Amino acid sequence: MDCEVPANTTSTNISAIASQIEALCDNVERIAAAIVNGTNNQPLPSGLDSPQDILHTVASTFVDLRVLNRQLHEDKATLNASVGDLKRKTDDLALELENKQREVLYIQKEIDTTQRQETIYQTIDLIPEQEFLETAPDDFKQDITTPHKLMLSRLRYEIKQRD
What we know:
THO complex subunit 5; 4 helices; mRNA binding; nucleus; THO_Thoc5; rod-shaped; coiled coil
């Protein structure tokens, strides 16, 4: 589930709503000034000829303000949800990284322990490697591609020599 909300879309929505709210507030101020002027026996501006017109205009303005307020709250909730999801994803990735790092440390510790561990073949008195390569029959030297296989061949050769 991808919940990313582009920042420019959110800021555009907020800017548009803010300008609409500013226009509505200017309208309310204009109506309030007209009412105050009307009580001072000055004529009301055009479009606000009667108290019913004023009431209708003010009511519709406040309805519009409530709609914009609701929209702002919904946008905020959406943004908070997307930020929360991104935080959870980040936390999950950080935890996964920490687990991987601990796993690497554990494996490295096991490798170090294994490398320090003494084995019995280190104490066996074998003929030197060079001498083995010179004196051993070819069937013992067929598969000595790795140090491990070379050691196994030397051990087999030593067993055969001691028998």
